[in-house]
Write a structure and sequence with these properties.
The complex is a heterodimer of chains A (163) and B (588).
Chain A (H helix, E strand, L loop, with lengths): L2 H21 L5 H12 L4 H11 L3 H8 L13 E6 L2 H5 L2 H12 L5 E2 L5 E6 L11 E3 L2 E3 L4 H13 L3
Parallel strand pairs in A: 1-3
Antiparallel strand pairs in A: 1-4, 2-3, 4-5
Helix pairs in contact in A: 1-2, 1-3, 2-3, 3-4, 6-7
Chain B lengths: L2 H19 L3 E6 L2 H4 L3 H14 L7 E6 L11 E4 L5 E4 L7 H10 L8 E5 L13 H4 L17 H6 L4 H9 L2 H11 L11 H10 L6 E6 L8 H8 L1 H15 L3 E7 L3 H16 L15 E7 L8 H8 L23 E5 H13 L1 H5 L2 E2 L2 E2 L1 E8 L5 E6 L4 H8 L9 E6 L6 E3 L9 H7 L7 E6 L4 H15 L5 H18 L7 H15 L3 H5 L2 H9 L1 H10 L21 H6 L9
Parallel strand pairs in B: 1-2, 6-7, 6-9, 7-8, 12-16
Antiparallel strand pairs in B: 1-3, 3-4, 4-5, 10-11, 12-13, 14-15, 14-16
Classes of the chains: A alpha+beta (163), B alpha/beta (588).
The structure holds flavin mononucleotide, iron/sulfur cluster and FE2/S2 (inorganic) cluster.
The site of FE2/S2 (inorganic) cluster (FES) has 11 residues of chain A, from helix 5.
Chain lengths: 163, 588
C-alpha cells in the first residue's frame, strides 16, 4: 500500500471518530471500533492505531477488543457483502441448500472474497428474521424466504450493481 | 395527573383522533424485520406511488409504518381503515398487487377478497373477524399491546394509547417503594432466561447507595430463533423506555442504558428516536414531568458476541472491552457497569412494567398459572404454519401452541422435535407436547422456556444434525475465558461431527457426557454451564437417531449428508491467524 493510501485510511478513520465523538454520549474502544468499521468496511492496522490514539489505549488493548467480536474484519471487503444465516431455524428449513448454491456461484469453499474481489461471503449465527427463514443479508438488507434460485438472482443483481 | 402530562395527553389524543377517526383513510404497513425482510418497504413505496397516481383529490390517505402484529407468516400486512369503517387487514401483499389493492379498497371501497386476512374493530359482511382467527384470539397482549397498531416513530401515538400514564401515576402519587411493591405483587419474573423475581432484583439495587446507579436493558438477543426483544423495540420502543424510567424511579437509579447488537438497524434507530422524543417531551432528563425526579437513557451498541448478553459480560462490553463475564461476587447491584451499582433486566421484563403500574400488580398476577405469572412472548419458527411472535397467558400447553396458535406442521407432516429457549435450552420430543408453558413445568420436562423461541422440526429432521448445529453455535460463541467451556465445546463439536458423518466410536456418548459434566461443574458462566443441554436433551429424547448413526453408520433422515457452514474463526488454526494480521507488524 502506498504512503498516500495509508494517509487516506488514517484520515477517514479520524473523520469517523470525530463524528462519533460528537454524536455519542459515551465513547469507548468498542464504540470507536464500530464507528471506524462502519466507515471503512474493515479495520486496517491504521484504524486500530487511530482508535488507540484517540481513546488513549495501547494498540495491544485495541487489537484485543477488535479480535473478540466476530463482526469485525481486518482485510478490505468486496464491494458487496452477502451474509448467509446458519442458525438452527434457517438450517432446518433449507439454509444449507441456499449456502451451497451461493458458494458454487461465487466459486468459494467458505467465507471470503470472490476471485475478482467484488463479493464477500460471510456466515451469520442469526439475522433476527427467523420467522422468514432461510435468511440472507445483502449489504444492509435482510431478505427472508430464500431459495437457491432467489439467492442466485440476488447475486446476479449485485454483480450488475455499481457501487 | 401532572399538568405537564395532561397537556401532552391532550395533544396526543387530538392527533390520534384525526388519524383514527378523521376524514382520511389510514393505511398501516407492518415494517418490523419480519415485514421488511419480505418486501414491506417496497410495498410502502408502491402504495405511495399508486396513491399519487390515483390523485389525492380522489383518495385522501395517510400511510404509516407500524411494528409487528405478530403474524409474521402473513407479512407484509397492509391494514386499511376507511373513514368510519373497520380496519381491514390484507396478507402477503406484494408491490405487484398494490394497484389492485388500492383500486379495490380505496377507490371502490370494497374488499379485495383473495388477500384479505380479517377485520379489526368492526365487521364487514363476508369477511372473517381477526378475533375468529386462533393466532389472534388466543393471545393476551400486554407487552405487545401496541405492536402493529401504532407508529413506533411517534411517541404521541404511544401516549394516546395510555403510554406514560404509569410514569405520570408513579411520579405524581406513588413513592418509589410503592412502585417496587406493585412489581413484587405482580409476581413478574425476568424473561431473560433465569426467571429471577424482578421485584427482588430491584430490591438489591435499592439497597446500594450512590449518586450514580444504572438500569441496564438487555437487548443483545443472540439466541437464534428468538426475535421478541428486537420485535418489541422495533414495534413499541416507548413501552421499554417507560419501563426503564419506572425501574429507575423505584430503585433510585439515575441512568439507563439500552444494550443492542450493532447491525440491528430497526431496533437501534427506533429506540434512539423514542429516547430523543422522550427528552423533547420532558419525559426524560432533568425534573421529569415537574416531579423533581431526573433520569437519563442512552443506547449502547455491541459487536457480534453471544456471550455479551450475559449480565457481567454485558457490563464489560458497555465499557468497551472484550465481552467476557466477570467473576461474582461482587454482584452487579454492588459493583456494576463503570464500577457503579447496576440492575440488569431483559427487554420483555421491562416492557411489562408500565402495564403493571397502570393496572396494578394484582391484575398482572391474575394472568398465568402457579409461580408463572403474566404472559409468555413466544417466537414460533421452523416447520410451523403460523410463524410469528405471539403473547399468550402462561400455562397454555405446548400442544395448543403448536396446533392452534401455530396452525400445525405444514405439508401434512408430523412434528418430531422442538428446540426451545435458545441453543442453551435443548430439545424436546413430541411426547412432551402436553407440558404447559410454565417456567417450572418446562424445566421439569427437560427443556427451558428461556427467551421464548420455539423452533419446530418435522419428521425430515435428524436430531444429530440439529444437535451439531446447536453445538457448533455454542462452540463458535464461547468467549474462551475459561477452559471447561472453551475446550469442552470444541471436543463436543469434534465428537458430534464424527457421529454425524457415520464415524462415531462406541464410547463417544460416554465421552460427551463426561465433558458435559466437567463443563457444568467448572465453567464460569451460564454459557459453559448450560452448554451441554443440547446434547443431554438430544440423548434423552432422540437416542434412536444417535444409535442409527453409531451402529449403522448412516443418517435416518439423510439430513446429515448435507454440507455445514464452518465459520472461519471456529477453530483457531493457521488460517485464523492469517485473518488477524500480526498486531506488531512492521508499521505497528
Ligand atoms: C451466555 C448467556 C447469554 C445471555 N444472553 C442474554 C440475552 O441475549 N438477553 C437477555 O436478556 N439475557 C441474556 N442472558 C441472561 C442475562 O445474564 C440476565 O440473566 C438477564 O438479562 C437478566 O434479565 P431478567 O432478570 O429480566 O431476566 C444471557 C445469559 C448467558 C449466560
Ligand atoms: S463459560 Fe464459556 S462463555 Fe462463559 S466465561 Fe467461560 S469460556 Fe466464557
Ligand atoms: S436462525 Fe436464521 S435468521 Fe434467525
Amino acid at each position: 500500500m502506498s504512503t498516500q493510501d495509508i494517509a487516506t485510511l488514517r484520515q477517514r478513520t479520524q473523520g469517523a471518530l470525530e463524528a462519533h465523538r460528537k454524536a455519542a454520549r459515551t465513547v469507548t474502544v468498542l464504540s470507536c471500533l464500530l464507528a471506524a468499521h462502519d466507515a471503512l468496511g474493515y479495520l486496517p492496522q491504521e484504524a486500530i492505531e487511530e482508535v488507540a490514539r484517540s481513546t488513549d489505549h495501547t494498540i495491544n488493548d485495541v487489537w484485543g477488543v477488535a479480535s473478540f467480536y466476530t463482526n469485525f474484519r481486518f482485510t478490505s471487503p468486496g464491494e458487496h457483502t452477502v451474509e448467509v444465516c446458519w442458525g438452527p431455524t434457517c438450517h432446518l428449513v433449507g439454509a444449507m441448500n441456499v449456502l451451497q448454491a451461493v458458494q458454487e456461484a461465487l466459486g468459494l469453499q467458505g467465507e471470503g472474497e470472490t476471485a475478482d474481489g467484488r463479493i464477500s461471503l460471510k456466515y451469520n449465527t442469526c439475522l433476527g428474521a427467523c420467522s422468514q427463514a432461510p435468511v440472507i443479508r445483502s449489504d444492509e438488507h435482510v431478505l427472508g424466504g430464500m431459495t437457491p434460485a432467489r439467492a442466485l438472482a440476488l447475486l446476479a443483481s449485485l454483480r450488475h450493481k455499481q457501487t | 395527573m401532572t399538568e405537564a402530562y395532561q397537556a401532552l395527553k391532550q395533544e396526543a389524543d387530538r392527533r390520534w383522533q384525526t388519524l383514527a377517526q378523521g376524514e382520511r383513510s389510514w393505511i398501516r404497513v407492518g415494517t418490523a424485520i419480519c415485514g421488511r425482510s419480505v418486501g414491506a418497504v417496497e410495498v410502502i413505496y408502491a402504495l405511495q406511488e399508486e396513491l399519487r397516481r390515483a390523485r389525492p383529490e380522489r383518495i385522501s390517505a395517510v400511510v404509516s409504518p407500524v411494528g409487528c402484529l405478530g403474524l409474521c407468516y402473513a407479512e407484509p400486512i397492509v391494514d386499511i381503515k376507511l373513514p368510519g369503517g373497520p380496519r381491514v387487514l390484507y396478507r402477503n401483499v406484494s408491490p405487484e398487487r398494490v394497484p389492485a389493492l388500492v383500486e379495490a379498497a380505496l377507490v371502490k371501497g370494497e374488499v379485495l377478497s383473495d388477500l384479505v386476512l380479517g377485520t379489526l374493530d368492526g365487521k364487514i359482511e363476508g369477511v372473517p373477524e381477526m378475533t375468529d382467527l386462533a393466532p389472534w384470539r388466543m393471545q393476551t397482549r400486554v407487552a405487545l399491546r401496541n405492536a402493529g397498531h401504532i407508529d413506533p416513530h411517534d411517541i404521541l401515538q404511544y401516549i394516546a394509547n395510555g403510554g406514560y400514564e404509569a410514569l405520570d401515576k408513579a411520579l405524581s402519587g406513588m413513592t418509589p417503594q410503592q412502585v417496587a411493591q406493585e412489581v413484587t405483587t405482580s409476581g413478574l419474573r425476568g424473561r431473560g432466561g433465569a426467571f429471577f423475581p424482578t421485584g427482588t432484583k430491584w430490591g438489591f439495587l435499592t439497597g446500594s447507595r450512590g449518586p450514580i446507579k444504572y438500569i441496564l436493558c438487555n437487548c443483545e438477543e443472540g439466541d437464534p430463533g428468538a426475535y421478541n426483544d428486537k420485535g418489541i423495540l422495533e414495534s413499541d420502543p416507548n413501552t421499554v423506555i417507560e419501563g426503564i424510567i419506572l425501574a429507575g424511579y423505584a430503585t433510585g437509579a439515575s441512568n439507563g442504558i439500552v444494550f443492542i447488537r450493532h447491525g440491528n438497524e430497526g431496533p437501534i434507530s427506533r429506540t434512539g428516536r423514542a429516547i430523543a422524543q422522550a427528552y423533547e417531551m420532558g419525559l426524560l432528563g432533568k425534573n421529569i414531568l415537574g416531579s423533581g425526579f431526573s433520569f437519563d437513557i442512552e443506547v449502547s451498541l455491541v459487536g457480534e458476541s453471544y456471550v455479551s448478553g450475559e449480565e457481567t459480560a454485558l457490563m464489560e462490553a458497555i465499557e468497551g472491552k472484550r465481552a467476557m463475564p466477570r467473576a461474582r461476587p461482587p454482584f452487579p447491584a454492588a459493583v456494576g457497569v463503570w464500577g457503579k451499582p447496576s440492575n440488569i433486566n431483559n427487554v420483555k421484563t421491562l416492557a411489562y412494567v408500565p402495564e403493571v403500574i397502570r393496572k396494578g400488580g394484582q391484575w398482572f398476577s391474575a394472568i398465568g398459572v402457579n409461580r408463572s405469572k403474566g404472559t409468555a412472548i413466544l417466537c414460533l419458527s421452523g416447520h410451523i404454519a403460523h410463524r410469528g411472535m405471539y403473547e399468550v397467558a402462561l400455562g397454555i400447553t405446548l400442544r395448543d401452541v403448536m396446533e392452534k396458535l401455530g396452525g400445525g406442521i405444514p405439508d401434512g407432516r408430523k412434528v418430531k422435535i422442538l428446540q426451545t429457549g435458545g441453543p442453551l435450552g435443548g430439545v424436546l420430543s413430541a411426547d412432551k407436547l402436553d407440558t404447559p408453558v410454565d417456567f417450572e413445568a418446562m424445566a421439569a420436562a427437560g427443556a427451558i422456556l428461556g427467551s421464548g423461541g420455539i423452533i419446530y422440526g418435522d419428521e425430515t429432521v435428524c436430531a444429530v444434525d440439529l444437535t451439531r448445529n446447536l453445538i457448533a453455535f455454542c462452540q463458535f460463541e464461547s468467549c474462551g475465558k475459561c477452559f471447561p467451556c472453551r475446550l469442552g465445546m470444541t471436543h463436543l463439536l469434534d465428537i458430534i461431527e464424527r457421529i454425524r458423518s457415520g464415524q462415531g466410536r462406541r464410547d463417544d456418548l460416554d465421552l460427551m457426557r463426561r465433558y458435559g459434566e466437567t463443563m457444568q461443574a467448572g465453567s464460569m458462566c451460564g454459557h459453559g454451564q448450560l452448554g451441554f443441554n443440547p446434547v443431554r436433551s438430544a440423548l434423552t429424547f432422540f437416542m434412536e437417531d444417535f444409535r442409527v448413526h453409531l451402529e449403522e453408520g448412516r443418517c435416518p433422515t439423510g439430513s446429515c449428508q448435507q454440507m455445514v457452514a464452518n465459520p472461519t474463526r471456529t477453530r483457531p488454526g493457521p488460517e485464523a491467524y492469517t485473518v488477524i494480521a500480526h498486531p506488531y507488524g512492521a508499521r505497528g
